[in-house]
Amino acid sequence: xxxxxxxxxxxxxxxxxxxxxxxxxxxxxxxxxxxxxxxxxxxxxxxxxxxxxxxxxxxxxxxxxxxxxxxxxxxxxxxxxxxxxxxxxxxxxxxxxxxxxxxxxxxxxxxxxxxxxxxxxxxxxxxxxxxxxxxxxxxxxxxxxxxxxxxxxxxxxxxxxxxxxxxxxxxxxxxxxxxxxxxxxxxxxxxxxxxxxxxxxxxxxxxxxxxxxxxxxxxxxxxxxxxxxxxxxxxxxxxxxxxxxxxxxxxxxxx
Length: 255
Ligand code: UDP
Known about the structure:
Layout: E1 6-9, E2 13-17, E3 23-28, E4 31-34, E5 39-42, H1 46-63, E6 70-73, E7 78-82, E8 85-86, E9 89-96, H2 100-105, E10 112-122, E11 131-132, H3 134-139, H4 145-167, E12 171-185, E13 188-194, E14 202-206, H5 216-219, H6 225-236
Antiparallel strand pairs: 1-2, 2-3, 3-7, 4-5, 6-7, 8-12, 9-10, 9-12, 10-11, 12-13, 12-14
Helix pairs in contact: 1-6
Bound molecules: uridine-5'-diphosphate.
């Protein structure tokens, strides 16, 4: 790990130079942070689980034609990804009211939304990732109108697909955050899904009990954080160490 050039270190992941030009290695740490880094801690084993969960979800999305930066998982904590230019936006998709959205609109947590809502935040820790409109995004040049269109349509497709996938294993996809990157192929640029999709970036509730199975357990000191991440991995059929040779067995559907 130490012999490779470290390109970037974030709160939950490190990016290293990849084996070939145009690739990076994404390393998943156990570090957790919340409330713009005001609360930090360790969720033991989180990096291993998020690597698997994100691998699985990105692969399934690739399979249905959603372009992503994901290439393949390398080992317990690392995956090979394509190097992209990150769009400085956090794209939030919401199906059910939760978190800061409840405060903003005076809603009770769990209230269903009339339709899925996509929101944009400017990715800037110093400013606390402020909520922005398309007007701000185009005026400040963070993304072009066509890129916003691509981001919106991909995000809604991801939402439809993941909502169904999670429901099949008894989990409600309440909301989640996506990040995008620009990938150049020859002279063509396209928008691809980047970062990770995991219980760090999604709100996941058990469909029958509404029990939280995501980072809110850490944010709100609810306990059993590791167990919740493990349960998501287990239901997706990607819990490491299950089955011979550690192969992924895939989700077990609930009826
Ligand atoms: N989210 C994230 N990173 C962020 C902000 C939000 O992954 O920097 C995810 C969060 O886990 C949740 C969704 O985006 O699934 C919506 O979060 P919200 O805006 O409600 O923020 P919060 O209430 O957590 O401050």
